[in-house]
Amino acid sequence: KRESASREFAVQGASVDFSPDSGQNANILIVDDRLSSHERLNAVLRDHNRVDVETRPQEALFRAAEGNYDLVVISLALEDYDGLRLCSQIRSLDRTRQLPMLILAEPEDDARVLRGLDIGINDYLMRPIDRNELSARVRTQVRRKRYADRLRNNVQFSLEMAMTDPLTGLHNRRYFEAHAAAAVEQSIRRDRPMSMLVLDIDLFKSINDNWGHDAGDDVLREFAHRVRKNLRGIDLPCRVGGEEFVIIMPETEMTIATVVAERVRRKIERDPFLIHGGTRSIAVTVSIGASCLSTPADTVQSILKRADQALYRAKRDGRNRVAA
Ligand code: GH3
Ligand code: MG
Ligand code: MG
Ligand code: MG
Q1: Residues with catalytic function
Q2: Protein residues with C-beta less than 5 angstroms from the ion ligand 4
Q3: Shortest-distance atom of ligand 1 to CA 205
């Protein structure tokens, strides 16, 4: 519930929540194989947090990767295991790269603490451990981590918003411009096929003129829905203009692209589109131009140009058809 509220907030302002964070109620993993030691740590932390203890360092990495932890507290004084090795494994795994690590070290461990800081631990405490200092350092790391999470989520969300067409939920022109070139370059580099479809709804202006702009919008939404339903996961459908769409199709030969295009065309033609809250239905058709990567000298522009020329022929030859 809280998450959806902050998402809505992000839509309006794309801003970050600066409200104070207690640094408590965190999920904490303690990695320590000495009973007396981890019991003391647990006693300090468990009142305000959810604490798990892992005594087997080899298991700790899996738990850290699978659990949803805000912090891992690692003792360097592990039997038969180098705590720093665990730290560097945590830093190198995608799932745990951002996970804060707090190290508990012996006074004679200062050289290892330095190495730990190099590896990317976030903070350390020397034994004997002062309980107030432990709580304070834990709270600080938890706050930092949550703040970084919020920031990252906001950036990601804002980026998604900036690349999404609000009417249809498809990628927008900005996304197309950012990703088409990379898709083309990658296909050329790997010597893989790729195709593009350009779709343009037929006589869309008359739909608006006859039934109103809202009906036109309903058609666009349903059109996008049908297009998406008939593509594969790797295809990237984008709304690049009013009633114009481009689909980037990686790993796709021209013959397959035209088969997909024909399938989409039929799905649009087959069932009438509901407008005016479902009280009316109207026939809609689409014309589609297909083209594919054909020389290493090709660019987004050259491929798109051939697809546009094919679309032009489809329109000229009577609409409601696929041309390549
Ligand atoms: P053709 O078969 O040759 O493509 O004919 P057309 O009428 O579809 O072509 P044209 O490009 O002349 O018209 C496109 C219309 O799309 C014009 C514009 O009013 C309408 N339009 C563009 N964006 C939107 C939108 O977001 N919502 C609605 N409802 N209409 C839009
Ligand atoms: Mg058009
Ligand atoms: Mg047109
Ligand atoms: Mg049109």
Answers
A1: 243
A2: 200-201, 204, 243
A3: 7
Q: Over the stretch 287-312, which tens digit does the pLDDT of each residue have?
A: 999 999 999 999 999 999 999 999 99
DSSP line for 256-318: HHHHHHHHHHHHHHHSPEEEGGGTEEE---EEEEEEE--STT--HHHHHHHHHHHHHHHHHTT
Three-state DSSP class for residue 173: helix
For residue 203, how far is its CA from the centre of ligand 2 (angstroms)? 8
Q: Where are the alpha helices (DSSP H) in 24-56?
A: 35-45
User: Nearest CA to 221 among 144, 177, 164, 166?
Assistant: 166
- Quick: pLDDT tens for 140-180: 999 999 999 999 999 999 999 999 999 999 999 999 999 99
- Ligand 1 site residues (CB inside 6 A) read 200-205, 208, 213, 216-217, 220, 242-243, 315, 319
- C-alpha closest to that of 235 among 223, 211, 251, 222: 251
User: For residues 260 and 206, is the Cβ–Cβ distance under 8 A?
Assistant: no
Task: Determine the residue of 204, 214, 276, 308 to mutate for testing ligand 1's pocket, defined as the one with the most ligand atoms within 8 A of the Cβ atom.
Answer: 204
Ligand 1 atom 13 nearest Cα: 205
What are the phi and psi torsion angles at 259 (to 5°)? -65, -45
Q: How far is the CA of 266 from the centre of ligand 1 (A)?
A: 20
Ligand nearest to the CA of 208: 1
Neighbouring-strand partners of residue 73: 30, 102
Strand, helix or coil for residue 249 = strand
**Which residue type, as a one-letter code, is found at position 77?**
A
ipTM (interface predicted TM): 0.92
Q: Is the pLDDT of residue 3 over 50?
A: no
- CA 74 to chain CA centroid, Å, is 30
